[in-house]
UniProtKB/TrEMBL annotation:
CDD domains documented for this protein: CuRO_1_AAO_like_1, CuRO_2_AAO_like_1
Chain ranges passing through the membrane: none
Signal peptide, first to last residue: 1-21
GO molecular function term, any single one: copper ion binding
Matches recorded under InterPro entries: Cu-oxidase-like_N, Cu-oxidase_2nd, Cu-oxidase_C, Cu-oxidase_fam, Cupredoxin, CuRO_1_AAO-like, CuRO_2_AO-like
Recorded family membership: Belongs to the multicopper oxidase family.
Plastocyanin-like domain residues: 32-145, 158-294, 376-512
Identification of the protein by name: Oxidase
Keywords, in A-Z order: Glycoprotein, Signal
Amino acid sequence: MQLSLAVSLLIGATLFAICGAEDPYRFFSWNVTYGDIYPLGVRQQGILINGQFPGPDIHSVTNDNLIINVFNSLDEPFLISWNGIQQRRNSFEDGVYGTTCPIPPGKNFTYILQVKDQIGSFYYFPSLAFHKAAGGFGGIRILSRPRIPVPFDDPAGDYTVLIGDWYKRNHTDLRALLDGGRKLPNPDGILINGRSSNGFSLNVEQGKTYRLRISNVGLQDSLNFRIQGHKMKLVEVEGTHTLETTYSSLDVHVGQSYSVLITADQPPQDYYIVASSRFTSQVLTTTGVLRYANSNAQVSGPIPGGPTIQVDWSLNQARSIRTNLTASGPRPNPQGSYHYGMINTTRTIRLSSSAGQVNGKQRYAINSVSFIPADTPLKIADFFKISGVFTPGSISYQPTGGGIYLDTSVMQVDYRSFVEFVFENPEDIIQSYHLDGYQFFVVGMDGGQWTEASRSQYNLRDGVARSTIQVYPKSWSAIYVPLDNVGMWNLRSEFWARQYLGQQFYLRVYTTSTSLRDEYPIPKNALLCGRAAGRRTRPL
């Protein structure tokens, strides 16, 4: 293992030397194991990283190179993906099966990531085999470089808060249900940083302000987050500094990340931290504790209530989240200097979800295509020009209205085009979508059917740039995407059972150029599998 690590580090240094990188390196060594966990009071098989559940935080600064050596001590293949990290010019490192060969049991792989031109709050998670239902996730924070102004004072503390729904069953049992063509039951509870009711606590001091980086790492439920007696000032969403709007509670849809500031301005005692499910027939609730120094009273009384099934409340809150146009992002120039609303779109892509049976088994689809993995990661097959693995254009740019069918769906789009995506949700559940490799501009969302006339209500000035968007029941959401990152990028439902059963596809952002300015070559240490097994990546 030591030799493997040394070789991996040499490879990483060589790759970034070729590309002219001079930014700092941060090194991580992770051992992924099974271990007993008891988040809802019963023993389960969890996935631990260095013995931790949730896994360790990644702390970094804009442009840092992250060298993460992952040892797979499980009994099945494993991959980690990095939600919101854009992997500029380097989709080989994205850690989903369409881009990266799984790490075999007993083996290791060194991810070489650069958080190029990014700031903000994100998370990582295991992407294969429904492992996400067992843990293996953790927070990622990217701080601004020292000379880049941040639009608020340094907080007294900076905390990761991972919220999500949870099952008492092991991930293997849940996966067996899905593989058998069945739907999953509703989750059993909600966790905050891996703990259920009052298991999580946050210590604060009177008069000081703290930053909470809240991510919904769950499997399906939107969650409402609130703190008894305290307001939350939203300051950042998935890498964008926002207008500093104050909320008493915040809807965090599955897959999304938010940063809020809270000030300990109440009498010194203990207060409930609450996360509860949204848009569910049975409301699940869990609590933590905000504990003041010198607290003179424990939490007591009723748990503060929050919204439950109200769509308009959530929609109006979502529309109120806007970009701070004058604040710097990862670079000194203001975030508003990119005028996305003044750029003509080159294509409109409409994506509509559906659910149904194929060969007597439950499946989910986008534009009627239910994704099935190929025998070789798509990006690796693309690099080696292996035919027969996928077909560009195997999913339509518009809903077809036909029945669900199975295919390895890949949509091809041109590098440097500027595309309007419209997510259409004809179903009666809330949905959430994530696009790897990108931040996109949220320009609109509303109930009913999207039409071209819907563009009249678009926000073309200060829509928030993010990587995960919700689509309300029987509603639509629209985004603008500048396709400036060559690669093979996963567009997926964050409702994890739906993703597992086909509600995803890959966006092939294509150019004929072979310049390093447009895309890095395959990493020298890339694992090769499927039809690429036995090939060589490239000469040293």
